[in-house]
Amino acid sequence: MSDNITIDLTKDMQKFLTSKSKEYKLSIEDTLKEIISQQINSRIDLGKGFYYDKVLKKVFDRKNNDTGLTKTQMNIFYTILETRGNIVEVETIKKNAWKDKNTSIFTLRNMIKQIRDKTYYGLIKSHSSRGYSAGF
Question: Is residue 78 within 8 Å of residue 66, measured between CB atoms?
């Protein structure tokens, strides 16, 4: 399929595209394809219309609105996201989210609840006495 597309670019856009083209050592067309591909591949589907944008490092809802996860909530979420398919131990999550602070299990549970409230319940699965895993 070879549909020709014409795009009117501002001078700043042209400069940016030319600069990226030189950086990538690609034609303007291939550079544009690469930029679009990076955008498409920067999203991880979390289910129920939610997605994680790897470039922006944020979780978005089905209407493309930022869910507003706090820094600590994002640290918890990202720790679980990195190990999709595996259970992450509570201590590992606490260490990644709060660094050296001695945090109670109740604080972690509350944060998990807040993440679920901003997204959906099944996003994070609980594993009694073991930890948490991604539910998507």
Answer: no
Question: To 10 degrees, the CA torsion angle through 76, 79, 81, 85?
Answer: -120
What pLDDT is recorded for position 2?
60
Q: How far, in Å, are 8, 12, 26, 59 from residue 77 at the CA level?
A: 40, 36, 36, 9
* pTM (global) more than 0.85: no
Report if residue 76 sits inside a domain.
yes
Q: Are strands 124-127 and 88-89 parallel, antiparallel or unpaired?
A: unpaired
Tokens in use for 19?
Answer: 């600069």
Q: What is the pLDDT of residue 102?
A: 86
> What pLDDT does residue 1 have?
53
Count the domains in the chain.
2
Range of the domain at 130: 44-134
User: What does the pLDDT average to over 3-13?
Assistant: 88
